[in-house]
Amino acid sequence: MNAAEQLLATGADGTTALECGDQRMTYAQLREQVRRCAGAWRSRGVEPGDRVFVIAPDSIDWVVAYLGVIWTGGVAVGVNPRLPAAELLPILDDSAPRFVWCEEPVAWPRLVRNDALWQREIAGAPACDAMPRDDEAPALWIGTSGTTGIPKGTIHVQRTVTQANAFACGVLGLGAQDRLYASSKLFFAYALGNSLFAGLRSGATVILDREWPTPERVEEMVARHSPTLLFSVPTLYQKMLGAGVAARLAGRGIRHFVSAGEALPLPTRRGWRDATGLAPVSGYGTTETLCLMLYSDDDSGLLLPTPHTEIEYSHADPAMPQRVWFRHGTVAAGYWNRPEAQRDGFRPGGWFSPGDQFLVHGDGRLEFAGRNDDMLKIAGQWVSTLWVEQSLAGACAGTLQQVAALGVTSREGLAELAVLAVAAPGSREEAARRMATAIEAMPRHRRPRSVHWLESLPLTATGKLQRSRLRALHADMAR
After folding, report:
1. Same domain assignment for residues 408 and 308
2. 153 part of a folded domain
3. Do 42 and 87 fall within a single domain?
4. Which of 31, 172, 324, 325 is 20–30 Å from 358 (CA)?
């Protein structure tokens, strides 16, 4: 099979496949462009298995270049175009791509610039047939988000795309009439798998945007392109609520809002429902799973498996937090050059276990409890920093922009909790008052012993909290 060919097999010729600004491309045009782009890559010397990095803002050209690599048998790697050179160059050296496709110059000897010359090269290239590959042969890599440390190159194989629309079809009712828009960018697995791949696989229309997402930009995109399914992240949903954008999205024809990337705080979910009439569907997935494996569509936040997702548990004790194992057609084959992480997270038979902890409820639903190092025992009882964050976010709703809890060690060598928080503009005093009241009302073992107020918390390029930096921030503030 060929993953790119399979992604483009469903869409009707005259249906719009991609929209970006004023540009439109039908499925017939996209198939032809990808075939010719693959011919151009082949003329450049790309062989099956060669890696090609795609480093540019989202666009129709991005999709054509990316799918053209896969069509010709290569391995496509989407990379954040805002990544500093100091972080990008070690990745390039480690992964040794055959080419780097870009708009801005990159310090790599084999560059392909997306300019008029490249477009003429595509136009003049012979349209080639898709290169058949084993279904376990690599098709694409995705870098992990780096929330807990150095990003890893995650290897997805050809069969990855076969069930890429399982969540969108089975939970959201995705059909060819739908229009998908993700505020996140295509180098992020969430947008790549759940919007681009799911949309193309179902013959729907996928909306792209070159610009970085802000509340105002999302509002502009909705007004201009009328999506029916909107994918975003909790941080941006919260910002859109605070900016009044959420209320202005009501009645715009959006059937479902989807949130993923981090746990969706209950106050944000309720606020969004009050503003728009629709509460976001909250999903759980990872770079390694590409698409969402779990979802919640009620205020409990408890998670159910998405269609085709199989789950195995580490142990049978429901009172103990545990890692779980997922199997699904979109689960990756493993990591590039990370044997220890490979052994820890992957096992034969297509199973993957993230470094996250869950509580298993009696009805089979799962409660997300954070990563291994987000769980700690205080006074003999398990505490998740995520539970503390959600409790404080609820008590301080409307006065907080960000809150993060972390486990630290007291001067006596005991485990305790600390909180880092960012108040909403003009709300510092009220936020501090509410937080102090909320902490006092918590069970003793869940009470943070220190609270630090900052101007901002560190985020990854995908908008997720960069938890690997929190401990150093706490140490600096505690001095």
Report:
1. no
2. yes
3. yes
4. 172
- Reference 464, options 146, 58, 211; nearest CA is 146
Owning domain of residue 254: 164-328+356-371
**Contact (Cβ atoms closer than 8 angstroms) between residue 161 and residue 197:** yes
Region 379-394: mean pLDDT is 81
Q: Is beta strand 351-352 parallel, antiparallel or unpaired with respect to 346-347?
A: antiparallel
- Flag whether 338 is in a domain: no
Q: How confident is the model at residue 355 (pLDDT cuts 50, 70, 90)?
A: confident
Question: Do 227 and 168 fall into the same domain?
Answer: yes
pTM of the model: 0.84
b/e burial code for range 173-207 (CB count within 10 A of at least 16 → b):
ebeeebbbbbbbbbbbbbbbbbbbbbbbbbbbbbb
What is the secondary structure of 441-462 as a DSSP string? HS-GGG-EEEEEE-S---B-TT
Shared domain for 366 and 393, answered yes or no, is no
Residues 6+ apart with CB under 8 A from 185: 57, 58, 80, 191, 462
Return the minimum-mean-pLDDT range out of 131-135, 316-320, 334-338, 425-429. Answer: 316-320
Report the pLDDT value the prediction gives residue 150, as an integer from 0 to 100: 65
Do 139 and 173 have their domain in common?
Answer: no
One domain, residues 140 and 184: no
Q: How many domains does the chain have?
A: 3
What CATH number is attached to the domain comprising 66?
3.40.50.980
Distance of CA 428 to the CA centre of its chain: 31
Instruction: Summarize the confidence of residues 194-220 as an average pLDDT.
Output: 97
373 falls in which pLDDT band (50, 70, 90)?
low
**Residues 402 and 308 grouped into a single domain:** no
Secondary structure letter of residue 278 according to DSSP: -
Per-residue pLDDT, averaged over 341-353, amounts to 95
Q: Give, for 89, the enclosing helix (H) or strand (E).
A: helix 85-95
Pair of tokens at residue 116: 């008029």
- Of 295, 280, 287, nearest in space to 231 by CA: 280
Same domain, 203 and 124: no
Which H or E run includes 381?
Answer: strand 381-384
For residue 240, the surrounding DSSP H or E stretch is helix 234-242
Task: Report the SS3 class of residue 74.
Answer: coil
Asked whether residue 145 carries a pLDDT value surpassing 70, the answer given is no
- Taking the alpha carbons at both ends of the chain, their separation in whole angstroms is 58
pLDDT at 156 over 70: yes
